[in-house]
Amino acid sequence: MECTPVMDLPEVRPGDDIAELVADRASLEPGDVLTVASTIVSKAEGRTADFADYPVSGRAREIAKRLEAVTGEEKDPRFAQAILDESSEVLIEAPFLLTETRFGHICPNAGIDQSNVPDHDLLLLPKKPSESAERIRSGLEKRGLEDVAVIVTDTCGRPFRHGQRGVAIGWAGMPASRDWRGELDRDGHELGVTVQSVVDELASAANLVTGEGADGTPVVVVRDWEFGDLEGSDELFRAVEDDLVRDALRNWRFDE
Amino acid sequence: MECTPVMDLPEVRPGDDIAELVADRASLEPGDVLTVASTIVSKAEGRTADFADYPVSGRAREIAKRLEAVTGEEKDPRFAQAILDESSEVLIEAPFLLTETRFGHICPNAGIDQSNVPDHDLLLLPKKPSESAERIRSGLEKRGLEDVAVIVTDTCGRPFRHGQRGVAIGWAGMPASRDWRGELDRDGHELGVTVQSVVDELASAANLVTGEGADGTPVVVVRDWEFGDLEGSDELFRAVEDDLVRDALRNWRFDE
Question: Is the whole-model pTM more than 0.90?
Fold first, then answer.
């Protein structure tokens, strides 16, 4: 398996066609997986916003006040409002906002970025990242680049473990996970492992060669990786009833 | 970056020298990262066990009873005892056991494996996986294979997201994470990302080419990946006071 960044992409602007930008710079082969950082997908889709776009509700004002009290740092209630607008559920209010985005991804601040946005205050995540992935995939297909899977990636932290890692937030042209249930080990025992989240692992692999700084390369080609002939599934975000930690957080409040 | 499995490893037995097994089969270069599945590290270190090794405490009996009641499946209290013996804290008792191992890794059943163990009931995780990684690293060095980092990997599930992915549980010859704090984006803004858990991302990348079944290849060489000149840190497992989800789980009980 080989991960190679696509070099010399220009700064992406609203209306840019990512499939075209990539097709002009990378030689893609059938079976390749293309990972695309959500930042450039959002930029192409014009998902920038300004604080002035967010009239503040009582809830956002309360949240911002509590965050200020807990962290001792100034918090703009319009940022809290932007996060609420992008979210279907707030899981943690303080000491930071952890929410579920409307497409099911649980991450701090609904994934809204305050860096990476020239001329605007905020960069929102793509509205429906799997649809974004599908648009890029079919854009490549139209240019004769067939059988390329596309993953839209984000980076975020997680419980229990320090630091951030790459994750998938949208995908097209492949299943999200690979199902090993019923497979046997060398000794003929059924495997302990069940479902492998391959899109997240591909996003993590790509993030190792992406870089975050001024010389970041937001698109990576993964070659010579095969899904294999196991069953696939498109579950990536846990169902509510299957997520004990969500349940625990719903019944918890940060102790100030 | 290239991930290549090491082929033709034999079934690993207690006392086997993993550095020797790998050195005989892979041509390693300075700067390579070697990922090694914890299963074969445990086998080499003789970390097998049998149910008979675990006289059952009242606590283990209680936990097994509750698990039976919740799941409707038979649970061996000796398995619960083995998990307790390997753990420093129980975070979830039901509907499954989520614990922190004595070396800081939070995962179901203290990572104890009931498949993958010929002639025994259980395969425990290595006692101190970073020390295991260091032994393999220095074993390679003795054979003239210098400047190879080693990561001991596990696969496990996570909150919020469905499926399992590869994670690091021990490492040597490189830092666990890469610190981007203070770096600037293209527009000169400070980055939103902070600390990147590179050992976890390497473990995930490797897991894509490892395979889980009878033809699994537990060792992978990652080549042409560079840590770069950013600061590193060896924090991987969150400190208790930094882990809100652990706090929420401590105050939560599964609603039967």
Answer: yes
